[in-house]
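Continuing from the previous page...

OK, I double-checked the sequence for YwpF protein against my notes and this is the correct one:
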Amino acid sequence: MKTFKLNNLEIIEQQDEDIIQNRIPLKDGLIINREDDQNRWVIEAYVEHSYLEFFKNLDEKDEEILIQVKITKETNEPATFITSIIGINEIGAHMNILFMGTIVDQRKHKIEEQLTALIEEGFQGEELLNKFKEIM
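Thanks. Re-ran it with the corrected sequence; updated C-alpha cells here:
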C-alpha cells in the first residue's frame, strides 16, 4: 500500500442538467492506494462537523459518488474517483469521511475523445494515424 496526503476534495454531483462541484475545505486527509486486485483506493477526509448532514445525505442515496482530489500538492492535476462512502465518524468539533473507490483514467478518456473527433472529421487509415501522432 502507498499513502499520500489528501490536499483537495471536491464532490461532483449532477443536479438536473448541471454538474455541481462542491469543494470541501479539509482540515487534513489521506489517500491510500490499496494496490489490491480491484485497484481500489481509500480516501479519508477530515473536515468540520458542519458537513455531517451533507455527507449523511450523500450516504443515504446509496449511489456511487464522483469525487476529484488533489494528491500531495495543490499544484498537482486533479485525480477523479468513482467511490462510495464506507464510514462517517464524528470526532469532537470535526468529523471524517471514508470513501472507497477506483481511479478514473482521465488520460485514456481524453485520448478517446481526440481520436473520435478526428474520425468525425473524416480522417482514416494512415492519414488518421499521422494526424493523431501530430496532435499527441
